[in-house]
Amino acid sequence: LLELDILLKGLKKEKEKVEEFLSKMTDLVIEVAGHYQDLGVDYMNIREMGSGTDIISPRMWKMLVLDNLQKVFSALRSPKVLHICGSTDMIIEMMNDCGADALSVDQKNNVAESRRKLGNDVLLLGNFDPYGTMAKMDVSEAESVIKKCIDDGVDAVWPGCDLWPELKKENVEAYVRTVREYSKKASPAVGRI
Q: Average pLDDT for residues 84-98, to the nearest whole number?
């Protein structure tokens, strides 16, 4: 709805208008997500696509995003997931403070480091590159990527972002097979929600 550079410039010149805009968008997200929950979805995944730290600083994230996400997650019923595209290593603890039941991270996130920071009581989902792994790699490479996600400590192996129409059927089959065969046991966080 609004280009990021315009939003960030607006913070200096018209901070109140930017905050009002973000508040309205937060209310809209709550309304739409609540509607889907009323329809009976199994879980709600809130995607904050434009706020990774490769786009805005952790300080800006805290100022612009944190309170609004806390408002969203406090209004939703469980299970609820927060996904942020891009680099999230520097904000992973703040992501956890938003009130989601699980965190989903992009392939730019260092999952092993995030697991160390968050401990085993947080559901962590991610984080393979969906296009690179599912559309470009051969099967053996895709299997290695899925195994690394598991070894790094994810509770569920999820794509770091959207799946692409160009994905290879054999890679998707390898993904499912590798998770089933390579996963040893559920993490301590599984069953929390």
A: 97
Q: State which H helix or E strand residue 19 sits in.
A: helix 15-39
In the chain, what are the helix, strand and coil shares in percent, each to the nearest 5? 55, 10, 35
Collapsing DSSP states into helix, strand and coil, what is residue 12? helix
CA distances from 164 to 104, 107, 126, 127, 131 (A): 18, 15, 16, 15, 6
Pairing of strands 123-128, 44-48: unpaired
- Quote the CA–CA distance of 54 and 51 in Å, as a whole number: 8
Name the token pair of 71. Answer: 């408002």
Which whole number is the average pLDDT over 113-121? 94
The pLDDT tens digits of the residues spanning 133-161 come to: 999 999 999 999 999 999 999 999 999 98
Where does residue 158 rank: exposed (0-12), middle (13-18), buried (19+ CB within 10 A)? buried
Which amino acid is located at 186 in the chain?
A: A
CA neighbor of 73 nearest in space, from 33, 20, 125: 33
Euclidean distance between CA atoms 60 and 129, whole angstroms: 26
